[in-house]
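Structure tokens
________________
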Amino acid sequence: MLSRRSTATVALVVLSLVMAACGGDSGTTPSASTPGATDDGAASPTTPASVPPVTIEGDLNVFGFAYETGDEIAKERLDYFRDNHPDVTVTVSESGFDDQQFLAALNSSSPPDAVNLPRIRIGTYIARGVLEPLDECVAQTGADMGVFYDAAVQQVTMDGQIYAFPEFLNTRAWILNNAAFEDAGISADDFDPSDWDAIAAANEELIVGSGTDLSRIGIDPKLPEFLPLWARANGVDLLSEDGMTSNLDDPAVAEAVEFGIGLIDAHGGYAPFKSFRDTWDFFGANNQVAADQVGGWPMEQWYYNVLASNSPDVDITVKPFMTREGEEIAYSDGNSWAIVAGTDNFAAACQLAFEATSAPAWERAARERADLREEAGTPNTGTFTANREADEIIFGEIVNLEDMPVFQAAVEEVVRLQESAFALPASPAGSEFITAMEAGVNEALTGAAPADALANADQDAQNAIDDAAN
């Protein structure tokens, strides 16, 4: 019988070929329920036989995570685990997740036992047998998967099996620059995200200059990366619910891309639009809102912290993205903690993945951030997690933005939207799908007919899915 590590090595031979072709972008714990599957394939808890206590000790290699160069949110959660399990020696990669580096690490003499990776890419590794299902881990830790937001859990679920504990939850909403709207003689409050004609009209009013003389972008559609949001707004999902069918060639997707290109072309074309956008001090005090260089754009919620810390006096309005029928939508993603199949220390890898995403670890990290920000006199807009219990503590007890009502309103809006957020489903070619999607949109942005570019991208994505599934 093959060991865990031997089984994973066999799968890696196939995975290495696939990824090379696409280019890649303390103690004891109680027993508890473990994930099963319902008739419709969704994950649901079933009750297994009780499991004996386990000892958490030994060496633990972690990939896709930084401690020495990480912030307090990273450090405090790893320290929480280390404090709970002093007999475990943890070594981290001190890097973010990278497909090719992960493959190299898996084939090294000291392969990782646990990995922190984007949920959007997890399906690729599930399909190739690189990651361990969480059934045994849930039983070991007593984890309640119901504390995580539905979209986050669905994104780490394949064929009814859950493969990772969701970590952060990044949620997109509109950020509108009130000063730009006022200067254009229009109202941010009246901006209707469901009316594409109104969005185009606002874009025209907000633009200042054109071509090489462009000094303010009206509306930035954030393509290609936010295409899932625009496509959903136009009534189509880019991937089928089971992650097996690419819908990039759907006419509604091409229509969404054409609309985004229209917004960009109103500035004098993609080249000057991108050239001007690349000059922004995106993470600095002279960012595009403070410098009045943009009217509005959809953005992840972590950017509120950038604005609040560097330009606390900016005036913004945050609004939900909407379908053209007026339904609020929010596109979410984030990282997750998974266990590498074949690990030599399953018990410790499981415990780390569970504890790093638990409410106590998040609370410890969030309180440390709040203390550090208070000492430095800088604002704290909070850490948005995929764990409901953690968010209730963070935004109910820790974050206090009473002195910054603009950002308080922004944070409250995103917290409200998190529950109904959607995500791209797990696909056996998750990484390859994103690569194909972005390549297709970039071709359209640089002059190709959107329908043709997306049809080619769809073929590439579907071929990758079919190959990965066989």
